[in-house]
Amino acid sequence: MEKDEALTAPRQPAWNTEVLNCATEKVGNHFRNPNWDNSMDQSDPFESALSSMVSSPAASNVPVSGENVIMRELIGKLGNICNSGDASCYTTPLNSPPSFDFSMVNLLNRSTLTPFSADPGFAERAARFSCFGSGGNSGGFNDPLMDSFNLSGNQSINVNGSQSNKNSGSDKKNSGVLRSSSPENAESGVSKEESSVSQQIQSQNDSGTRKRKSTPRGKAKEIPSPAAVDAKVASENDESNSKRSRRDGAPAGNGNAKASNDGNEKQSKENSKPPKDYIHVRARRGQATDSHSLAERVRREKISERMKFLQDLVPGCNKVTGKAVMLDEIINYVQSLQSQVEFLSMKLATVNPRMDVNMEALLSKEMFESRGPLPHGVYSIDSSPAFPYGYQPQQGLPPLNNGIPNTTETPFSMKTQGFQLPSIDRFTDAHPQVGSMWEDDLQSIVQMGFAQNQPQSYQGSIPTGQVKMEL
Amino acid sequence: MDLQNLNPSSLKSRFTARFLRALTEINAPKTISSSSPREIFQRYRRIKVAADKSMAYSVRSRRIWSRATLWRLRTRSRSRRLVSFGRRASVKTRTTASHGKENKEHHGAVLGVQAEELRELVPGGEAMDLCNLLDETAHYIKCLTTQGFCVYMGGLLCEGCC
User: Fold this and answer.
1) Which domain holds residue A348?
2) How many domains in chain A?
3) Residue B44: its pLDDT value, please?
4) In CATH, what number is assigned to the domain containing residue A313?
């Protein structure tokens, strides 16, 4: 403990590299076992995490914020590395439930909650004993670490996992921190570092970080959670949101008890709901980390992504926020489109069709023409002003009635009985700019069509009349 | 999501070709338009079916909604009247119901009511989870706009030449 402080305080970088090398040799080899295939990617972060842990800049009572951030990040990463062994389908290589950590965490949390913060040494010793106990060795780093890995992987995950999940508001972070810290303590015997680290992290967290409100105060669980939170904060800048969320989910363990996780999930969900808008989705810190919540979070993100896409598709939905309102708008839009098609087909039915080959040629030309002036934005054009039935809520019917020639009155009257009216009420011209584009295109097409067929009296009046009708 | 897969021009051209073919078939036997509402209504239904069918065929079976539409059209042809009337009524009730439910607030990620309504709107949506449902809805909206556009243009040109 004391030696660690002495080592860590002045020479952080050098110490880091030293520990890095040492740790790498010992742990890296173990992690390169076939059982830990995923750890291949994690060797570096693990090393860095180890170094950070061992160095424990937190030992100094005047923590450098940058160092602490880095250290916390490393701690978090270490925790992730440790978890890599049990990667689930949703976990990146960095994610994995901590096998051995749970035992430590469990014991740590059980032993003392409040006293943990008060007396770091006690907790550290407890952790170390637990670590050693699980490992059956009092030796160096490797043995207890490996033993704990092997043991916890098989046996204690469920029990410890639930415990760890309960303990921390941010399960993953807590467990991650404790996990990362406990092996460190075991190997380097720097239990004090852990507590001091966590304490400092906690202090840092309390001040600056976005700590989860649900995290209980004055308990040992807080310590790992702030640390984990800080780790997450530090790593936020580095990793994408999706990765982070997965990483968060992974360490919690795949086979943890659902009940405890659900409780934590609720907490995390409650905390994450306010900042979470379906447009701006960020990974929430302090989320439950079991596979279920992880999968659900992935699913939610997918849904929000699609909602964003739909928002672009449906006109006039940019100002709308919230899934419910957005879905309502989408529903209205789809209904209006469907009724629009029905109305148009009805209109087509009333027209006396003289379909000759020219028509097909005309339409093919229309398609060809529409490619130009209406590039990929054709759908937006179609939707809003294209027809006179551009979709927009709450506007009147009159333009339609006035513009449509008499031939449509009959079917229109038929339709008045039906459902058309309420939906048609929504038909309006949405975007005048787009409407102008549409108008030009329409004019060109119609004129082309008329020119092909026969010059008639329609040519001048009807196209313009119809164009006017649209607007 | 699959916006790139949907080439507007190709979809439109495919749909237009099929739709025109169907239109010629519908209108060929009756060169003189009888203005009785009933016949017009029949023609309207046929045209609408043609539009839906041609749209679904343009998309083939790439989409769940197109497959559902084709299946529905095939089964509907056997029991046409009942289904169409039933659909209309359900659409009406949906329209009114949605207005009432719009005021509800839904917490959480699962928006059951709107999802249900959306499922009813999008053909084949009953068997999809929300994620796929939103995908299908996006594609369906695109195809609906294309369909409406083509039908509208067809109507314009038909009016123009008659």
Assistant:
1) 292-354
2) 1
3) 79
4) 4.10.280
